[in-house]
Amino acid sequence: MSIILTMSELEKFPKTRADLVVMLRNAGITPTHQRIKIGEVLFSREQHLSAEQVLAAVNQEDDEVSKATVYNTLGVFAEHGLLREVIVDPSKVFYDSNVSKHHHLFYSDTGELEDIADENIEVSKLPNLPSDLQIEEVDVIIRVHRN
Predict the structure, then answer these.
(1) I need a surface site. Which of 84, 86, 106, 139 has the fewest CB within 10 A?
(2) Is the domain of 112 the same as that of 136?
(3) Is residue 105 located within the same domain as residue 86?
């Protein structure tokens, strides 16, 4: 069910530290040392990571990045469109480096999150909304567990 990345989507992931700095600047984000380290973890490939996973990965080396800095940076990256926040339940948030339109399959027994291509989901009915509201987006998360 995972989506296949096209060449244009692959180009969204910076190949070098300099590419990452340009990506951050183009998004209106000041590329601090900590943001670059966090970006190197997040944008190395398409993936879904929790804040705790990002914190652990960033701090594997000698540098120490605080938990607050990781959470704040994830918020800034999401706010500027570099990440998608995927809230699978009130206590579990993933940060998705694939910002293209797609949906998710969440395995509640393993905590894994998998992409579902947008064309594989069809929403046939939505509620009637007041005239002053407009739908921005519909995100589908299918929660499953193995028998």
Answers:
(1) 139
(2) yes
(3) no
- Shared-domain flag, residues 11 and 25: yes
- Pair 2, 14: CB distance under 8 Å: no
Q: How many domains does the chain have?
A: 2
Task: Measure CA of the first residue to CA of the last residue in the chain; give whole Å.
Answer: 19
Cα(72)–Cα(78) distance, rounded to whole angstroms?
10
- Distances, alpha carbon 22 to alpha carbons 2, 60, 144, 147, in Å: 29, 25, 39, 46
pLDDT digits (tens, 9 = 90+) for 62-118: 678 999 999 999 999 999 999 999 999 888 999 999 999 999 999 999 999 999 999
In this prediction the pTM is 0.83
